[in-house]
Write a structure and sequence with these properties.
By secondary structure, this protein is of the alpha/beta class. The chain contains five helices and eleven strands. The strands form two sheets. It has an eight-stranded mixed sheet, sandwiched between helices. Bound molecules: NADP nicotinamide-adenine-dinucleotide phosphate.
Length: about 190
């Protein structure tokens, strides 16, 4: 897929979410110190507390994901229960059992109906497209720099304000991590 510019991405997504909308678009991800989020189509860490945090944060909310992230979920976990699952793909024939299929991020946001909060849950392509229109980021910041092929976009401190942080101490082989929430600054 040809890479779109930031402005084009923003325009495309704003057709679904006008700037004065009361809806919140939130991104949720587990991110390394090098912004790593995945390798070979898989997650980088198995953090049970983070799984719980993800489940509790997104419960009852529509979740939007790229086709590759959908396919990376174990079949027993998809669709993610208790949430409207929306999968974005260019493939018009694609079928995802238990999920809606959208032709673009903008379409996915429209399919979420009038839900007040929508979560974009990955992967790298979807985060990149949703970042320009996101209001909130829920990042699990992991104190690790793993080898990776999928990365979260830069979180620019001029644009994003940290509003909460809960540190979690490492146990066994699991690295330290923190649940951090950011809100887009109003300029
Ligand atoms: N650490 C975390 O929190 C986290 C969370 C989620 C995922 N991940 C990781 O991220 C990696 C996957 O990320 P990824 O960037 O490779 O894939 P992805 O974003 O999950 O999915 C990419 C696919 O989504 C579809 N797509 C993207 N933009 C589209 C658009 N505008 N219109 C229509 N379809 C569109 C395309 O599907 P088609 O090719 O079918 O057209 C594209 O190939 C994996 O390693 C996964 O484990 C990590």
């Amino acid at each position: 897929m040809a890479k779109s510019t930031g402005d084009e991405l923003k325009m495309e997504s704003m057709r679904a979410i006008p700037p004065d909308s009361l809806r919140t678009v939130a991104l949720i991800a587990a991110v390394g110190l090098n912004r790593a989020i995945g390798k070979d189509g898989q997650l980088l860490w198995r953090l049970p507390e983070d799984m719980r945090h993800f489940r509790d944060t997104t419960r009852g909310k529509p979740v939007v994901m790229g086709r590759k992230t959908w396919e990376s979920l174990p079949e027993t976990f998809r669709p993610l229960p208790g949430r409207l699952n929306i999968v974005v793909t260019h493939n018009r024939e694609y079928s995802a059992r238990g999920a809606l299929v959208a032709a673009s991020l903008g379409d996915a946001l429209q399919m979420a109906g009038d839900a007040p909060e929508i979560f974009v849950i990955g992967g790298a392509e979807l985060y990149r497209q949703a970042m320009p229109i996101a209001h909130r980021l829920h990042l699990t910041e992991v104190a690790d720099r793993p080898d990776a092929d999928a990365f979260f976009p830069e979180v620019n401190a001029d644009a994003w304000e940290e509003v909460s942080r809960e540190a979690v101490r490492a146990a066994g082989t699991v690295p330290d991590f923190a649940f951090v929430e950011y809100r887009r600054r109003k300029h």
